[in-house]
Structure formats: C-alpha cells, structure tokens
Design brief:
This protein is 67% helix and 4% strand. By secondary structure, it is mainly α.
Length: 360
C-alpha cells in the first residue's frame, strides 16, 4: 500500500464538479419552480430538497476523499451483498411511483438502493479484478467476473432497466481496462446483446417502448418525448433565456427529472447545453488521467469505474431526451432532481479524489 506524502487532490476535477453542481441547482430551480408552486405551493420545494442532499453529499465526499481508498477493499464484498439485499427489499417492500418500485422508505426518509448499487459494484469489481489480475487474459475468468454481477443487474433491472444497463456497462469497461486481450470482448458483446434481448422480451411494456421510440406521435406515451423535442428545437443557438421556458409549464411532465436537458436546451440554447456537456467531458477526462496515474490497479479501477458510470449515464440521458434511443428513465448527473442520486454520486467523487491524492 503506497504511502501518502501529501494530500493533493485533483483541483481541475473539483472546479468542474462544483461549477456543474452550481449550474445544476440554478437550472433545477428554473425548471421546477412551476411544478413546485402548483403541487406544493412552494416554488423552492425541489430546490430546497436538492440543496440539502447536495450539501450532505459534499460533506460525505470530503470525508471519503480524506480516507485511504484501500480501506474499502475489505468492504467490497459486504457492500455488494448489501446492494443485493436492498434490491430484494425494494421488490418486496418498495414504494411504487409511476408504475415502478424503486424506493425504500425509512421513516421520513426514502432512497433508491439502485444508486448505492452503482458504487457498490464499482468497489466490488475493482476488488475482484485486482484479486484475479494475473488470470484476466483467461476467457473463463472474465466470464465468471461478469456473471458475478448478473444477480444485481437482474434485481435492479426488474424495475429500473436503465440502471441495470449502467451497471452492466461499468462491468464491461472495468474488465476491458484490466484485460490484456481484446478479442474476447466480441464474444462478451454478443452474449450481452443476447442477454439484453431476452431481458427486453420478458416484459411487454419494454417492447412497447421500442414501438413508441420509432413513432412517438402515434402513441399517447410518446407525448413526453415529443414535447422534449419541441423544447430542444425552440431553444435555437442561444435559448429563450433562463427561466423563460414554455415547455416546463406542464407540457413536459415532471420536467425536473429525466427530461431536464430538453429545458436546458430551450432556455440556454445550443451554447448553454454545449457548456454543460463540456463540464461533463472535463470530469470524464480527469477520471481518465487519475486512472492512468493511479498508484495501483485498485485505484485505477475505481477511477475507471467512475468514468464509465458518468460517461454511460450522460450518454444515455441525452440519447433518450433527443429520442436517439428508447425512453429508459435515466437522470442527468448533478442536473436532474434526485437526492439519492446526488449523494451517492458525490460519494463516488470522494473515492476518485482519494485515488487522486495518491497518484504517482
């Protein structure tokens, strides 16, 4: 285990992260004020909850960043087991919203265990790959590692397909990073496509989403997609101006959630949306730099896992909003409303900062 001479975090990562969080809070208030006023008679309702979660997450991030990330090696398996148990608990006792069970309530608090599962899987795979690093060129080893995360993929995917795709994507990227051979990934990709095909066919509503994606104007459920596209198209280069969106006034349902990027495009235009994407690209670039300069493989895999998570989630959200892929109900990190999401994302950032403090 390397010795820490001096704690020196990646300040470029921190600067981009804080700028993204501040922009996210401003955009969230602009997007959610109308819904907050109509539903709760408080235009600041969503902002206050998100701000509380963000401050809690920032505190947790710096606590995590100040700890040696090697400590979490011993908690990798228990953490993964806890993620599986929580996912089972969601299926049995979870709260249902909009037809999906994704939440567990603990008194006045509720959270999404699937957000915890993403962090748990990153640590679990980093531990597992590090332990089997000398055998990573073996197809059997790679297959067994991927099979080990299928229980959580299946449990989460039962109610949250998008998060299951993210977890599966994290697994593929981490195995790819650690493997000395690349040809096996053709077979892995084929198996993954087959698994996803079977998974989609198990539920009729998933096939229905494919039909809605192809012709949203022919289905009532395509309304949200169409309104989101109207919002993007009406923004132009420079947008209508912050707070001036028309589509957020009930036309895009729950605009502060999955479809918030369409309101970003409408109010800030192509340039504003491009700036948000540049901030995400800076984060992903810094994750890559930290991974390549990490003190050991375990740290490199943690940073690579965070990079995979951020990259996949941002791509999926924007692809859904622009109707490039079928609607999967995925949030935009640090921008969309969601307390559980922002807390666990910031915990993940704390892990990466801990890795960055021990770079070579």
């Amino acid at each position: 285990m390397p010795d820490s001479k001096k704690k020196k975090y990646d300040y470029t990562l921190l600067a981009a992260l804080f700028l993204l969080m501040i922009m996210g809070l401003v955009i969230l208030y602009s997007t959610s004020a109308y819904n907050g006023e109509v539903k709760f008679h408080d235009s600041f309702y969503y902002l206050k909850k998100q701000l509380f979660a963000t401050l809690l997450g920032i505190a947790a991030m710096f606590v995590m960043a100040g700890m040696d990330y090697h400590i979490w090696r011993r908690f990798a398996i228990p953490g993964y087991a806890a993620a599986i148990l929580l996912s089972v608990a969601v299926m049995l006792f979870g709260d249902e919203y909009n037809g999906s069970k994704r939440w567990l309530s603990l008194g006045p608090f509720s959270f999404q265990p699937s957000e915890f599962a993403k962090v748990a899987v990153i640590l679990f795979l980093a531990f597992l790959v590090t332990k089997n690093v000398k055998k990573m060129g073996n197809m059997k080893t790679m297959f067994l590692i991927m099979v080990s995360i299928l229980p959580i993929v299946g449990l989460v995917g039962a109610s949250n397909l998008s998060t299951a795709i993210i977890i599966l994507g994290i697994g593929v990227i981490l195995v790819f990073v650690a493997s000395p051979k690349y040809a096996q990934f053709i077979w892995m990709g084929a198996l993954g496509c087959g698994f996803m095909g079977i998974f989609l066919a198990l539920e009729s509503y998933r096939l229905e989403r494919l039909a809605i994606w192809r012709n949203p104007e022919k289905f009532e459920k395509g309304y949200q997609t169409l309104q989101g596209l109207y919002a993007i198209g009406s923004g132009g280069l420079f947008g209508r101006g912050l707070g001036e969106s028309v589509q957020k006034l009930g036309f895009v349902p729950e605009a502060q959630n999955d479809m918030i990027f369409s309101i970003v495009c409408e109010e800030l235009g192509l340039f504003g949306a491009g700036f948000v994407l540049i901030l995400f690209l800076i984060l992903i670039w810094r994750f890559f730099v930290i991974a390549t300069h990490a003190a050991d493989l375990f740290g490199a895999l943690i940073a690579s896992g965070a990079m995979a998570h951020m990259m996949i989630q941002v791509i999926l959200n924007i692809a859904v909003v622009t109707n490039t892929i079928p609607n999967t109900g995925i949030t935009l990190p640090f921008i969309s409303y969601g307390g559980t999401s922002v807390v666990f994302l910031l915990l993940e950032m704390g892990l990466v900062l801990s890795v960055s403090s021990l770079v070579k």
